[in-house]
């Protein structure tokens, strides 16, 4: 088995959708999460605050330098994630398709290097 990060890619500057749009999306996400739990592949998941609350820490000369925001400026950012434990990339992509349908957003699939510590 291998761990994959399924990253929810959100558009910059659009804010939180209105409740009538967001509530069905969240219900769909919960259904996919429950399906992952029932299948035994779910490890963790969560949403992230927008880039306005992000900090980037760099260590150049022995002291951490903290700056506001993400490390790059982009039109999209990582807005949430699921971590799954599946047999291969093809299975990870199938779960990503379900999350993309539920969220209506692109999902980035990335394999972890090595095993996650549990």
Proportion of residues in extended strands: 35-45%
Oligomer: single chain
Mean of all residue-level pLDDT scores? 90
Q: Give the biggest beta sheet.
A: 4 strands, antiparallel
What would you say the CATH architecture is? 2-Layer Sandwich
Which radius of gyration do the C-alpha atoms yield? 16 Å
CATH fold-level assignment? Alpha-Beta Plaits
Structural class: alpha+beta
Q: How are the strands of the largest sheet arranged?
A: 2-5-1-6
Features:
36% strand, Alpha-Beta Plaits, alpha+beta, 4-stranded antiparallel β-sheet, flat, 118 residues
Task: Give a quick precis of the structure.
The protein has helices at residues 19-39, 89-103; strands at residues 2-11, 42-47, 55-59, 64-68, 76-86, 107-111. It has 118 residues and is an alpha+beta fold.
């Amino acid at each position: 088995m291998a761990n994959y990060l399924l990253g929810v890619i959100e558009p910059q500057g659009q804010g939180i959708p209105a409740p009538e749009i967001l509530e069905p999306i969240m219900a769909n996400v919960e259904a996919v999460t429950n399906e992952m739990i029932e299948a035994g592949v779910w490890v963790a998941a969560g949403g992230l605050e927008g880039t306005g609350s992000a900090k980037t820490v760099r260590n150049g000369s022995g002291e951490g330098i903290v700056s506001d925001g993400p490390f790059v400026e982009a039109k999209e950012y990582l807005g949430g994630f699921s971590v799954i434990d599946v047999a291969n990339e093809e299975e990870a992509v199938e779960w990503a398709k379900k999350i993309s349908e539920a969220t209506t957003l692109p999902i980035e699939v990335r394999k972890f290097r090595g095993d996650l510590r549990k």
